[in-house]
Amino acid sequence: MNSTKQYVLQQLIRKQDNWVSGDYLASQLEVSRESIWKAINTLKRNGNQIISRKNLGYKYLGNSFLDADTINFYSNQQFEDNIHVFNETTSTQDIAKEFLSTHHVTEPVIFIANHQTKGYGRRGRSFYSPPETGLYFSVILPNPTSELFQVGLLTTSMSVIIAKVLESFYPDKEFQLKWVNDIYLDNHKVAGIITEAVLDLESNSAANFIMGVGINLTTQKFPTDLSTVARGIEPNAEINRNQLAATLIQQVIKNASDYTNPKLLSEYRRRSLILERQVTLQLGSNSIQGLAQQIGEDGGLVIKDNQGKLRTFKSGEVIKVDWN
């Protein structure tokens, strides 16, 4: 059952930019005007921009903060009890792992942060996660089959889903993908994905997957070592982060069970910015140079090395691409 605060927020968002009278809200909930006033003040403390006028009521102007109730509204209350929002944390991946250590999870659970102090991607590489300008979240995806087969496709498929959602919010942009987990715009990284399996020690199988997503939306300043390779999607654009978060979460969860769909792999190949280009693949302390020839059926990268031999890799990081 929705609280007074949640109901008031829902009504204000539904009638955004229009006045909603306090008497109407009170009568709908069968509560006092004072209860409505207290709910409004609580919503304001959570970052909701609400103005009031005598004889008119209240008007909702938006929320620049990430807020669980607002995200729940945009997700049609699908994940009401399973969305956890933090202003600052080390990493949403870390929080998800801690949660799994004390909870038995049977449905998706989401962790969202406004700022990560130790955000990371594949191979432990740091992901720059400044406050206010990005969206950083992790989703626990229960694995009902406990199988690890073709898990490489989960990251490639979700990369496609996330790119499509971003294009629905930025219709003038076209996002490309760098194997295996980076989303690019104009040859600059704007987002990264990490998928980690949490093993059931008794069965030695994956009980859950934790998918982490980091997106630089309006970020303008990056550390020196990232300034030439990373960028924000649109530094000067206003974006409803709560609505974007809700849409991304819904689409990831909706499509996760269908991650082996060949249409997603086909779309991944179409969006790939490395195919038919010379690349350098880092494998631990070693590196491989060659032509990125194909993305395999299992999501692996097929490279024709400098000796003309075709080699398939399921891990590693493409650290260099010849854009010429």
UniProtKB/TrEMBL annotation:
Pfam families named among the record's database cross-references: BPL_C, BPL_LplA_LipB, HTH_11
InterPro entries (UniProt xref): aa-tRNA-synth_II/BPL/LPL (IPR045864), Bifunct_BirA (IPR030855), Biotin_CoA_COase_ligase (IPR004408), BPL_C (IPR003142), BPL_LPL_catalytic (IPR004143), HTH_11 (IPR013196), Transcriptional_repressor_C (IPR008988), WH-like_DNA-bd_sf (IPR036388)
Q: Which PROSITE patterns does the UniProt record give? A: BPL_LPL_CATALYTIC (PS51733)
Enzyme class, top EC level, equals ligase
- Record keywords: ATP-binding, Biotin, DNA-binding, Ligase, Nucleotide-binding, Repressor, Transcription, Transcription regulation
What cellular component GO annotations does this protein have?
A: cytoplasm
Its name, as the record gives it, is: Bifunctional ligase/repressor BirA
Could you tell me which species this protein originates from? Lactococcus allomyrinae
- What taxonomic classification does the UniProt entry list for its organism? Bacteria, Bacillati, Bacillota, Bacilli, Lactobacillales
